[in-house]
Amino acid sequence: MSFTADVKDELTRVIPTCSHCDKATLAAIARIEGTLLFSGPGRYKLEIATEISSVARLVIRSLHTLYKLKTELTVRRSVLHKTPNYLITVPSQPNLEPALHDLGILAKTGIEMGILPHLVEKTCCAAAYLRGAFLGSGFIAEPRGDFHFEITVESEELADGLIQLMADRDINARVLHRRNSYIVYLKSGEAISEFLAFVGAHQCALAMENERVRKSVR
User: Fold this and answer.
1) Coil, helix or strand for 110?
2) How far from 217 is each of 96, 124, 208, CA to CA, in Å?
């Protein structure tokens, strides 16, 4: 497994601090990895894709527990990478539209672009939202090489929101606009370790810190 996969696997096993943390994590994953389909007034369908089986289980469990939503799971195998891809489909149903508003995906006038304040009101929920963002599209290079961390999102407002959540913990991230995406990135090994510790990946944070110390000694 890659270091990124190790981090994501550890993050799926973090025990929520409060009753709202699961919602914050699900909201971030759905915002980043979700595709919203519209087929008429009040008729929505949500699709969430991931390559990590533990992330798929977390998403399905949260959708069932928090909103009593019915889901369908399709496992596809990539011809190029020979790895499975998990597609979670939430078909149109009465509970879906209220859930989309509650998760900060739908706004009164269309798609929500930023992060709703009620989702990240507590420090633990801010950590949970960042945890979900990384589970969605996060990447960390192998620590033995150059330190590099990024989360890719589709809106500038969401990127700015993630940067602010990190800044509140003195983690200074930057954003790069590339084509139709915004990349929130860190280049400092110390900042990456602090992020991992904040979102609950303590074992991976320790591995990062050990590698950072080893490089400084060399």
Assistant:
1) strand
2) 53, 34, 14
Contact 67, 26 (CB under 8 A): no
Among the residues of 103-188, which ranges form H helices?
Answer: 123-137, 156-167
DSSP 74-141: EEEE-TTT--EEEEEEE-S-TTHHHHHHHTTSEETTEE--S--GGGGSSHHHHHHHHHHHHHHHEEE-
Give how far the C-alpha of residue 145 lies from the chain's centroid of Cα atoms, to the nearest Å: 24
What digits encode the pLDDT tens for the residues 41-78?
A: 778 999 999 999 999 999 999 999 999 999 999 998 86
pLDDT value of residue 81: 64
SS3 107: strand
Tell me the per-residue pLDDT of 136-172, one tens digit each, with 9 for 90 and over: 999 999 988 889 999 999 999 999 999 999 999 999 9
Q: Which residues pair with 87 in a beta bridge?
A: 49, 74
Query: Is it the case that residue 193 has pLDDT exceeding 70?
Result: yes
| Closest of 126, 56, 47 to residue 89, by C-alpha | 47
Distance CA(97)–CA(41), nearest Å, equals: 10
Category of 129 on φ-ψ map: left (φ > 0), alpha (ψ -120 to 50) or beta: alpha
Do the Cβ atoms of 23 and 119 come closer than 8 Å? yes
d(CA 210, CA 4): 17
Check residue 193 and report its DSSP letter: H
Nearest to 145 by CA among 1, 3, 11: 3
How big is the chain, counted in residues?
218
